Amino acid sequence: MTTFAAPATGPADLVARRPVGLSLEAPFYTGRDFFDLDIEAVFARSWLFVAAEAELPEPGDYVTVNLGPYSVIVVRDDDEEVRAFHNVCRHRGARILDDDRGSVGNIVCGYHRWTYGVDGRLLHAESLPPGFDPTCFGLRGVHARTVAGLVFLCLAEKPPGDFDDVAARIEPYLAPHELRRAKVAAQIDLVENGNWKLTMENNRECYHCGGHPELQCSLFPVYGYTEQDVPPVLRPAYERFLRAEAESRTTYESLGLPYQAIEELDTRATGFRIQREPLDGAGESFTEDGTTACARLLADFPTARLGRLSLHMQPNSWFHFLSDHAITFSVIPLGPDRTLVRTTWLVHPDAVEGVDYDLDTLTRVWTATNDQDALLVARAHRGISSPAYVPGPYNPTEYQVEAFVTWYVNRLKAHLAR
Amino acid sequence: MTTFAAPATGPADLVARRPVGLSLEAPFYTGRDFFDLDIEAVFARSWLFVAAEAELPEPGDYVTVNLGPYSVIVVRDDDEEVRAFHNVCRHRGARILDDDRGSVGNIVCGYHRWTYGVDGRLLHAESLPPGFDPTCFGLRGVHARTVAGLVFLCLAEKPPGDFDDVAARIEPYLAPHELRRAKVAAQIDLVENGNWKLTMENNRECYHCGGHPELQCSLFPVYGYTEQDVPPVLRPAYERFLRAEAESRTTYESLGLPYQAIEELDTRATGFRIQREPLDGAGESFTEDGTTACARLLADFPTARLGRLSLHMQPNSWFHFLSDHAITFSVIPLGPDRTLVRTTWLVHPDAVEGVDYDLDTLTRVWTATNDQDALLVARAHRGISSPAYVPGPYNPTEYQVEAFVTWYVNRLKAHLAR
Amino acid sequence: MTTFAAPATGPADLVARRPVGLSLEAPFYTGRDFFDLDIEAVFARSWLFVAAEAELPEPGDYVTVNLGPYSVIVVRDDDEEVRAFHNVCRHRGARILDDDRGSVGNIVCGYHRWTYGVDGRLLHAESLPPGFDPTCFGLRGVHARTVAGLVFLCLAEKPPGDFDDVAARIEPYLAPHELRRAKVAAQIDLVENGNWKLTMENNRECYHCGGHPELQCSLFPVYGYTEQDVPPVLRPAYERFLRAEAESRTTYESLGLPYQAIEELDTRATGFRIQREPLDGAGESFTEDGTTACARLLADFPTARLGRLSLHMQPNSWFHFLSDHAITFSVIPLGPDRTLVRTTWLVHPDAVEGVDYDLDTLTRVWTATNDQDALLVARAHRGISSPAYVPGPYNPTEYQVEAFVTWYVNRLKAHLAR
């Protein structure tokens, strides 16, 4: 029963004194200074998943990515490469493209008609001053990369150098799902009333999964248990899980699909975790009975029972690749207490809605799960906003939450040391 | 005709230079720094009226009190005592109870199902880390007290020590109205667009009561006048007031009801004022003709003409206790320019709506008066926000406003001196 | 491809290093500190156009002007002079008049009925303290001036001394339009989602006018071109412009109407530009075919082909005076990224709606143009908010934008030097 004073300490002190094994102190989640620091130290310096290549299939197709104060145009150029540019006119700075997505021949600013190519070069402008050199006024570039159909960008001048290695290691897992040629079946944006790190932490544990009845149909209810401590009531489920795991390994190996977990969540700049695992029920997909949601599989697989290939990437994305569809999730901070979660469902390019898949069936499990998570994140944010909040203990099933937090704090430390 | 610069002075300087006899300088009302200081120095250190016991009649009944960044659970425990706890899970800090009120067996966090008793002890949680001691992870307590059916809490570790004395002195006035067993007939929350101190100041004078036609039916229109200066036009009303006062004293004394004013508004930590006074018109209640609004009286009184027992408490509440009902008012700051006013009407537990009382008749006078006051508070806040505002003079009828301000400034001084 | 850090520099540094020939750095538009500085250094120290006299034709008529934290009552007094007072009661500071406009006998505060004359003197208040001197508690005055039917005010104690000279020089241009006796046909308030300086900059160039199809009907499409560089495709329009200019000068001279440009936009405290110019099409008014929108002309002109008399005043207004109507525009900052644009259409006092003019025809061109400009201003604000924005080059057709910016920066310099 103590009085709780607002901390007089700044981000550097809070970062330095972060204890191991406990949740972060409140200002990490509630402070405007930490929000700005997170954009600068984490989001402007890391590789970020921002779109599927399927979102921009043709030259001139673009999406705009708005991240904190930044706006970036991601566009497929005339050589079919994906490129990225700051969405800021070099004249007096107007936002150039206003829509979330579209298709253009050239990139034309709607204010004074300055006209840039999809390669970023300034092609035309009226009434230019004497001595004006258009080659000095191309759009400012942003680093962009694609990996097996996923588009990543990095706002930093020098992006983390380990991305080549990460790409090389995850590409063999992802490539069989042939996402580069997939099509977008659905995309849903959800705004959560909490800090982006609470959104990520919530994603990184299944300790709360009892609150996800739809999702529980396809997840084995043995999260966090081992042979030693599985309780008697869960013993049948645990046996079912062991059988499914053995069976699925045989399948993966016969198909040449890599499946072993690689877990480097907090030991590198581009932290990640990847693993292929069986699903419960029919074992095919994230549906209420576990059967496929799309009759046309993503690739020419001999079976639909491929479980889920799950990828987590720091700081802001996760993915599930199934035999019949893939789901991508990206998280964009909007404010200290507001976060955008964008979920995209990808299917085979020739799959036909209403014939091969029903949109509601395809999206039901994760739409429900996301909505449930949004309530939990809001509840978490409101709670830690109280001066009575003190950091509490992670338990063993929350080790990936702690790995996320450790990775994050290390990014801040690296930035503050510059 | 001067230019008005924003003050470069901080709260400590403004507190130190506060002049006597004039309204406060603008930053006290408009500044975010003063808002935070008010929460910390005043609301987190004073005893606050937060609910009537009638709002939680049974074990397990609770209300949540949200005050600035704090959220508190006020719950009746299994021994029928009222207790209070911070509404923050000891795991990773989630808000535990989301509703304004309800009833529970245990207090269960909706995130990971950590389960606490209504005495705050941690009873159960899954997957705990090795060596975890649940006795270290009970809910953090908040001081709670009840006085004659009113629930008070204090967020400070060491609450003001004078509350026992205040309770002992007001209890004999309040007890005859038997609020401990009353029931809630209505509760209305109103958000005023002004600083909480403007809400309180408005409550502490009747100089503006010409703007309250409904209320004026039961108040003698002689506020601020004495024998010497009552104007001729009000002479008949003044005579009526004197007769009512003499008559009512006889009644109060014959019934053993204390009525003399005790006024210690700015001379102690728990400032208060209490007095029983006659009402105009029929003299029974706050209705448009002054007759009772509820046929069933609050207690076994031989007459309904008991006037009003009025209690003011610093920093944020006032009350009127009548023969037939009681009305409580509590004020909660929401932001520098937003304030919640919660009004609760209490009646005899066996009074039946539609039979003994009509809800609209019961609530009409104070609903109208509150709505009128909300407009005045908004007008006051907008005005003092202008750089052209300079503190103006209180007049003699505003002495209780000045007492509130003096009490408030003394609280800030005491806090800043720590 | 660089990382963009938030500037550690304050307003004084940014003002000092402002380069010539380039747009301003982002914090001028996005920072709360610059917003406050703009109110204090520019809006509270300059003469501001705030209303047409036609908005307060009779004694007691008033408009309230809300500007940042200020609220000002502009009222016609009993001697028919226009006067201005801070809209703040001298008692405890309440906002006195809540409506945007109205008519009063006295100025009565709605809180405690303190009553002031339309000359600002305190006439009456109840329950005043002993020794109270009402002559010390009149409303605080604000400097007010009228010029040819336009009302200007200045919040500073010492307004810029050059206003007499400006008034003397623009009055001969304006007086023939007899606005003092005009009536308000329409007034529209529009909130733009951008900084007020972007609104002004947008007004001060026609480089973007290709985006204004309705306006383009009456403007010659040769903006920014000279004899030397007019492109062949615009040659016919340019010849048409030269003929109209020659013809109109003959008309202006025969009628004794001054028309030559005076351009002192950035060389004085009260920067301005005035010029009478021909219009394209029928050459009479801002309508889609260039004919008059009001059959009753503003004054007893022998022809309606008077083109447009255009006046720009720093910091926040512009005007077009035509033979049949006049349009005034004033810009009020609401926040760093929100700006009010008020447009008022004035016609002859005896012109009858539905007979002499159709309201939709009268207002169509500028309503459409304002709506288009609002989108451009929002686009400009969003763009410069990106850390990737770098100031870009003005071209020769944007010299009045640069003049505005230079005037503005000089005001900040003068203020910061105090």
Write structural notes for this entry.
Three copies of one chain form a homotrimer. In chain A, helix 3 (32-43) packs across helix 9, helix 5 (196-203) packs across helix 8 and helix 5 packs antiparallel against helix 9. Chain A is 27% helix and 23% strand. The radius of gyration of chain A is 23 Å and the shape is globular. In chain A, the strands form three sheets. Chain A has a seven-stranded antiparallel beta sheet with strand order 1-10-9-4-3-2-5. A seven-stranded antiparallel beta sheet of chain A has the order 11-17-16-15-14-13-12, sandwiched between helices. The first copy, chain A, is built from nine helices and 17 strands. Chain A has 418 residues and is of the alpha+beta class. Chain A has helices spanning 11-16, 27-30, 32-43, 163-174, 196-203, 213-216, 235-255, 359-384, 399-416; strands at 48-52, 61-67, 70-76, 82-86, 101-103, 107-108, 115-116, 122-124, 141-147, 150-154, 183-192, 262-264, 272-277, 308-313, 317-321, 326-335, 338-347. In chain A, a hairpin with a 6-residue loop joins strand 6 (107-108) and strand 7. Chain A has two domains: 48-147, Rieske [2Fe-2S] iron-sulphur domain (Rieske Iron-sulfur Protein); 173-416, Naphthalene 1,2-dioxygenase Alpha Subunit, Chain A, domain 1. Chains in contact: A-B, A-C, B-C. At the A-B interface, helix 8 of A face strand 9 of B.
Quick structural summary:
3 copies of one chain form a homotrimer. Helix content of chain A is 27%, strand content 23%.
